[in-house]
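job 3f2a | input accepted
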Amino acid sequence: MLFARLTRRAIGSWRTLLSLRPRDVAYFWRDHRRSIGYWSLQTVNFACFFHLFGEHVATLSFVEGPSMMPTMSMNGELTLELKRINPAELKRGDLVTYISPLDPTRRVCKRVTGLPGDIICVDPTGQYAPSTEHVVIPRNHLWVTGDNLPYSRDSRMYGPIPFGLVKGKLYARVLPWKDRGVFRNTLEYID
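job 3f2a | predicted structure (191 res):
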């Protein structure tokens, strides 16, 4: 009995739908055009807001690779990246994202280990340069290195990076959920 009633209702709905005339469609459009236009405009506004927020304020970034182990896992993590940064306020130990000088299509995450005016040992491991070679960081440049030196391509290979390449600062780990939290500055600076 219930099945028969539902079937009759469905058939009636289809007959109503198929019996619509162009005049009925025109009346529908006339009655609802303001609300459709309003919601279309609201959708465009929200899309523009989220785009501008992600480009200029903050965004979620996926970071993966062996160069930042043990701070970040090799399998990848979702992080909150602040885009609105002042390069003059960066400190030694901050995690920054920047455009790779070797491949401009890639964004790289490394730790700031030298600020303008610092004297840096180019490669303490001796892998890329003699461990006695030192360099003075020029004005408006940073020296960045990965936490896992043997697996990191960083300033030891391409030298100091200009402030103009820096695109953001990592603020917090979002996923995996059990490891979530704000990144702490663990670098010990020896004067």
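job 3f2a | The mean pLDDT is 78.
job 3f2a | closed
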